[in-house]
Write a structure and sequence with these properties.
five-stranded mixed sheet, 14 helices, alpha+beta, 597 residues
Amino acid sequence: MLVVLFVNDEGSFPPLHRVPEQRSGGSGGSGGVLCVPRFYSRVVAIALFVAVRHKAVVALQLQTTPGAVFRFIQLPLVHRGRGNRGRGNTSGRGNGRLSRPRACVAEKLATKVTPPTVERLRLFLARRARRAAVTRAAAPSNPKIERANDDAARPFFDSKEANDIRGYANFTSRQELADAALVDRHAIPKTPLSVPYQQTLRRSFALVGIGLHSGEVETVRVCPARANEGRYFVRVPPGTIPPDAARDETGGAFSRADLTDEETEDLVLEQLRSMMRGADEQKDGSFERAEALRKKSESAAESPEAFGVAGEERVAACVTNTQTSLRLSTRLGDKEDAMKSVGTVEHLLAALEALGVDNARIEVEGTGELPILDGSAYPFCYHAARVGVVAATASGEDGSENDRFAWRLDEPLTVTQGDAFVSLYPDSVTKLTYGIDFTYKSRAIGKQWESWTPTEDGRFADVLARARTFATMPDIMAYFRAGYIRGGTENCALIANGDQFWNPPMLLPNEPARHKLLDLVGDLSLLAEPGHVGVPVGHVVAYKAGHELHAKFALKVKEAIEAGKATRVPAEMWAREEGPAANDAEVASMRKTEPME
C-alpha cells in the first residue's frame, strides 16, 4: 500500500484517485494520491486516515522546502523525490478560484518539523488506536459483508468518537465541527465577476511585507471608497493601521486561526470523510447549506467613512502624477517630497483594475513603498476576492449604481525609445501583446512573446497574476551595489543566471513576458478617471519597453482622449460567468439587443 500526498497551494480537495497496483523492490499494493494545501504541513490527521482506513504501519517523511512532498507509506520506504513546485494552474486557464498566496503563510511554512512534532504524531496515533480498540472488539461481524482494502470492521466514525469533543475550545458539538468543515471546503475565494457599474471593496484588507527598494517593513491597507473617487493613495503615520489588520483571515480558504490541535485534526478528518462519500453536493444540498452558513458568519461590510480624516493629503492614481526617470518600478506623487509620494504601485493597481475595483483608498504605512510580497499581483487578487467587491455608491446615495465606461481610440499611436516601442491599434476589444528579448543577457529568458485578450483568454488571476518580476543575476548584483534593491525574499523574483534559472521553475509559461503584461495593465490603469476604467479598448503592442515608456505611452493616450480622438463605450466584462447556462444567458441577451436571423 502506498499513499502519496502532494502538497500544493490549491484550495480544494479533489477526489481520492486510486492508482493501479505497483511493484517496487518486491513491495506492492494499492494506494492513492491526494492533493492537499501546503498548510497541512503540521497536521497529522492524514496519518490517522491512513492508519484507520488501511491498518498500515505508518512511516513519515517530511520535507519543508517549497513544494515539498509529504509521504505516508508502509515500510519499507519505496520512493523518494520532490514534488511539483508549481502553484496551481499553469496552463493559462482556471476555474476562477483563488488559492491562498504563499506570501501570506510564510510564517507558518517556516515551522520546521522537530522531534516533539514526531512525538506528538506517535501519541496521537496511539490515542486514536485506543479509541478504536474500544469499539472494534464489540463490532458486529457479518459474513455477507465483504471488506475491501483491509478496511477495519467499524465505521469511519463510530458512535463514541462521533460525540467525543475532548480538546475542543471553539465547538460545542460534532455538528458544529461538521458545519465548519463544510464551510471550509467551500470558502475558496473566487474571482469577482465583471459588472457594468462601478465597484469598491466590501471591507478593507491589509498586507505586510518587505519593500524591494527600501528593505524596510512596509504595510499597505486597501479600503472601500465612494463612487467617482477613483483609486488614490494616502501616506499614514505609524500605528494608523491596526497591528492585527494583516492577520484577518475571514472569508479566506483554510484558515485555522485559534483552533486546537484536536479541532484541526478532526476538521480535516471530517473533510476527508465527506470527500470519500463522493456525493453530488449540488444535489444533496451541501453547497447551498455551505453558502448559507458562510453568509451567516461573514464579517460585516465597512463604510468608506470609517477611514480617513479631513484635510489629508491624497495621491491620486492617475498618469499625471507619475514621476519621471522611472527605473525599476512606478512611483507616483511629488518627487521632491518623500511624504507625498508612493512607489511600487503597479502590481496592486493591476489587480484592482482587472478585478473591477474602480474606487479604493490605499493607505501606505512606512517609507511609502508597497511591499513586494511574492513579486506578483496574486496576493492582492486573492485578498480582494476574499473580502469581496460591492457596488460603489456616491456620498448620500443608497444602493444606486454608477455606470462604468472605457475609451476606445479611433486612431493608432506609437511611442518609441531606441528599438523599444509601445503602440495601440484601433480594435473592438482590448488586446495586450508583449515581446521581450533578453538573449544578450540570458538565454534562460531569451525571446518571448505573450498575448492576452481579457474577454477571450481567461481571467487575470489565472493568466497573469501569478507571474513574478524577473531579472538576471548580474543585474540583481549591480542594482544591489547601487542601492536600488535592498530587500525582498528568495522567491519574490525569477532570477536567470546564464543558460538556466537560479531559482526555477517558472510558475507560468513565459512567466517573464506575462509579468510584463501585468506591469502594462498596472501602468495603463493610471488612465482611469471617475466612471472610466484605465486600460483603453484597442490592441496594445509593446516590445522591450519598461515603466518609463509605459508612462510616456499613457500620457500620449490621454492627450488623444482630450483631443477627441477616442469614443466612450461601455466597459468590457473581463470576468464573466462560464458554463452552458452562462452561454445561454449571453445569447439571450444578445438576441434582445441585436436580433439574430
